[in-house]
């Protein structure tokens, strides 16, 4: 009986050890199951994050395309603005040149006006002198004709004598 008791005791110990091992294995299975559930939840969380990030990436790519299109439009606008600015500068320079030319022409015109006035006064003076000379000529011509007539009459009288 002693053997039997020892055997039973041994079996009990084995059973307890097996129960302990089974409980430990169940604990490990529970831990592993819990860890697996956590991992699955992490995977789901990461999948959600990936989906959100992909959505954000799509949104960012769309915004980038829009920004590039806007930048292209802005560059075209800037190029057009720069071209208009250069044309405006060119026109301003041309305007300055034309204003200088106009100023020079006005100065020349003033000089010509002054010379014309001077020439007009000279013409008036010469016309007055001509009129005086014409009057003197008429007076001297009349005296000449009178003197000539006197001379001819004196010569005729001398011839008759």
Automatic annotation (TrEMBL):
Keywords for the protein's UniProt record, in alphabetical order: Coiled coil
Region (Disordered): 64-83
InterPro entries documented for this protein: Tropomyosin
Gene3D superfamilies, alphabetized: 1.20.5.340
Pfam families, per the entry: Tropomyosin
Record bears the keyword Coiled coil: yes
Protein's name according to its UniProt entry: Tropomyosin-2
Gene behind the chain: TPM2_2
């Amino acid at each position: 009986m002693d053997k039997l008791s020892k055997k039973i005791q041994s079996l009990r110990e084995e059973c307890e050890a097996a129960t302990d091992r089974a409980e430990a294995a169940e604990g490990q299975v529970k831990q592993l199951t819990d860890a697996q559930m956590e991992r699955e939840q992490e995977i789901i969380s990461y999948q959600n994050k990936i989906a959100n990030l992909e959505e954000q990436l799509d949104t960012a790519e769309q915004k980038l395309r829009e920004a590039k299109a806007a930048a292209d439009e802005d560059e075209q606008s800037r190029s057009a603005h720069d071209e208009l600015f250069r044309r405006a500068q060119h026109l301003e320079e041309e305007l300055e040149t034309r204003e200088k030319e106009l100023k020079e022409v006005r100065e020349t015109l003033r000089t010509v006006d002054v010379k014309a006035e001077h020439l007009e006064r000279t013409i008036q003076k010469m016309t007055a002198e001509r009129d005086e000379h014409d009057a003197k000529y008429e007076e001297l011509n009349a005296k000449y004709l009178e003197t000539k007539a006197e001379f001819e009459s004196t010569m005729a009288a001398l011839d008759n004598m």
